[in-house]
UniProtKB/TrEMBL annotation:
It comes from Tepiditoga spiralis. This is AAA-ATPase-like domain-containing protein. It holds the Pfam family AAA-ATPase_like. Residues 6-227 form the AAA-ATPase-like domain. InterPro entries: AAA-ATPase-like_dom, P-loop_NTPase, PDDEXK_9.
Length: 593
């Protein structure tokens, strides 16, 4: 009977006591003990941060006897550490991972509730407090304290616990930056940052009751008073070597896990889908994806990307500058980009779409990997998408952006249907510039992107139009045809033309497309439905550059002799004389006026 996989489990004790599968990361404890007084560890979501914090809580907590949890783990061989530290320290453990709210009032309530629970858990210290301290303690428990008391409450609790046990305290704070990210997302960032900053600052800065503190999160938030004055801070990000193999799975750990569950798998496929992370020079696999892969008997799927937590990244892509979107396109095409990575990123800089902050967030959140430090002085790195699983996220994000623009897309096509050709041209050209033209634009068949874009616009018109794509009509194959069900409406023919250098200009390419529509009689199928009023459009493109011509354009379909006749009309020449000189009918000449 194989051990159950711990999907969704982040409580270390229950995982071990229920004999679930556990990749032994217990040597993290030794590294933490041997590292600085205040540690900040940043890793992407679902890479084991909460489970590791839980493991350390059960290891250090003086109120428990948890030797049985560690007997079969690597750390138990470190006898000196076991004797000196196993259940020998007062521990303050608090998690902010569930502090999520779209408004300041609720976030403040969630935070005070969490601090109230913390105080209630350690209510035993009440007996050694002074009368004044007891009043404040009760206010925290009852959630009636003012902000100044909340800001000081973790530091105060560490003082009380040190007094009670006669030992300095270990503080463990899980997902410390969740409320900060929420505040940024929902517009109350400035209001919450002071409260959170003071809470951590007082707990960590010059706290004589502190033995060690370990904070985990996704990003290192700085320049915002969070760690101002915390001179004993040691930071572990995906860029440096500290704890580089303690979060996520190494290649050996993946092989061991899949072997244990007797899974047959293509190593190259698992690498392509779930590998690619670079944590301080160590090759790391996504642990959530690997565990879920094992649960699903080796079925390759985008497991991590289908979990929550993508909203901010999606918004930054959607709202990004044209330059940022161009770089996203390059990433999707498998290319690398370069950027300065600011380890002490500022969420406020995201408002200004400051690129280095955007790429820093993407890197720390697991949506990019770094491949090379190309300039140590300026912390400049080459970046790329780590694997297929994450690439699917980028592709889907682009598609969803188009879906969200559905009404706008419909309106663009309605402009064409109504004969507003200039508005159609302007809006379509803006769309191709501002919307990602991902892999199809640069690939072997870039027509697919534009073809798909027009078909996407057409979806809302199905009730009024028969929509045909790449159908044999007349003497050739039209790209998109819209046949109106009401014969009084106009038919639409759209042809896409990729630009070739021998055409000299993109406009020439577009005109050639319109000529092709006429010469190959693409309108025949529409005429077969009794529709004679037909709008013909040729869209020529060179990557994101677009030129559009239509039979609605003035003079676009005139022959050379018709242009001569029109010029003569404009110069006041008699129509009958023009007819004799050009062999054009009087009626034809009148139509040129």
């Amino acid at each position: 009977m194989k051990k159950r996989l711990p999907i969704g489990r982040s409580d270390f004790k229950s995982l071990i006591e229920d004999n679930m599968y556990f990749v032994d990361k217990s040597m993290l404890i030794k590294e933490v003990i041997e590292s600085g007084d205040v540690l900040l560890i940043t890793r992407p979501r679902r890479f084991g941060k909460t489970l590791s914090q839980s493991m350390m809580k059960y290891f250090f907590d003086i109120t428990q006897n948890n030797e049985h949890l560690f007997k079969n783990l690597k750390i138990y061989k470190e006898k000196n550490i076991i004797e000196k530290h196993l259940n020998k320290h007062p521990v303050i453990y608090i998690t902010f991972k569930d502090l999520k709210s779209n408004n300041l009032k609720k976030m403040h309530a969630l935070l005070t509730m969490e601090l109230s629970r913390l105080y209630t858990k350690h209510e035993y210290v009440f007996e050694i407090l002074s009368e004044k301290e007891k009043i404040v303690f009760k206010e925290i428990m009852l959630e009636t304290a003012d902000d100044a008391k909340y800001e000081n409450c973790i530091r105060s609790l560490s003082e009380y616990m040190e007094r009670y046990y006669g030992k300095k305290v270990i503080i463990l704070i899980d997902e410390y930056d969740t409320p900060i990210q929420q505040a940024y997302l929902y517009g109350y960032y400035d209001e919450i940052i002071s409260l959170i900053g003071n809470l951590f600052g007082m707990a960590l800065k010059d706290n004589v009751y502190l033995e060690k503190a370990v904070l985990t999160g996704i990003t290192r938030v700085s320049k915002e008073s969070i760690f101002t004055g915390v001179n004993n801070l040691e930071v572990s990000t995906v860029l440096n070597e500290l704890f580089n193999d303690k979060y996520g799975l190494t290649k050996e750990e993946v092989e061991e896990t899949l072997k244990y569950y007797e899974l047959e798998y293509e190593e190259s496929e698992v690498i392509d889908w779930y590998n690619g992370y670079n944590f301080g020079g160590v090759e790391i696999y996504n642990p959530f994806s690997i565990v879920t892969l094992a649960k699903n008997k080796g079925k390759i799927r985008p497991y991590w990307m289908n979990t929550s937590g993508n909203y901010l990244v999606k918004q930054l892509i959607k709202q990004g500058s044209a330059e940022l979107k161009d770089k996203i396109e390059k990433l999707i095409n498998g290319e690398e980009i370069e950027s300065t990575i600011n380890e002490t990123m500022v969420y406020g800089d995201l408002n200004n779409n400051l690129e280095e902050s955007v790429w820093t967030l993407f890197l720390f959140s697991g949506y990019l990997k770094w491949t090379k430090n190309i300039n140590h002085d300026y912390e400049r790195y080459t970046l790329k998408i780590p694997n297929k699983e994450v690439k699917i996220f980028y592709n889907k994000t682009v598609v969803s952006m188009l879906e969200e623009e559905r009404i706008k897309l419909n309106n663009i096509l309605i402009n064409l249907i109504n004969g507003h050709i200039e508005e159609f041209k302007e809006d379509f050209q803006k769309l191709t510039i501002n919307t990602l033209s991902y892999f199809d634009v640069s690939g072997e068949e870039p027509e697919r992107f534009y073809h798909g874009l027009i078909l996407g616009m057409s979806v809302g018109l199905k009730e009024k139009y028969i929509i045909k794509s790449n159908r044999e009509t007349g003497l050739g194959r039209a790209d998109v045809i819209l046949i109106p069900k009401d014969k009084t409406d106009k038919g639409i023919i759209i042809e896409f033309k990729k630009f070739y250098k021998n055409e000299k200009t993109l406009l020439n390419s577009a005109k050639n497309g319109l000529k092709q529509i006429n010469e190959k009689k693409y309108e025949e199928e529409i005429k077969d439905h009794g529709i004679n009023d037909i709008i013909k459009v040729s869209i020529a493109f060179d990557k994101k550059e677009v030129e559009i011509v239509s039979n609605l354009d003035k003079d676009v379909e005139l022959t050379e002799i018709e242009k001569v006749a029109k010029n003569m009309i404009e110069n006041g020449v008699d129509i009958e004389f023009i007819s004799k000189m050009t062999n054009l009918s009087i009626e034809k000449i009148k139509n040129l006026i």
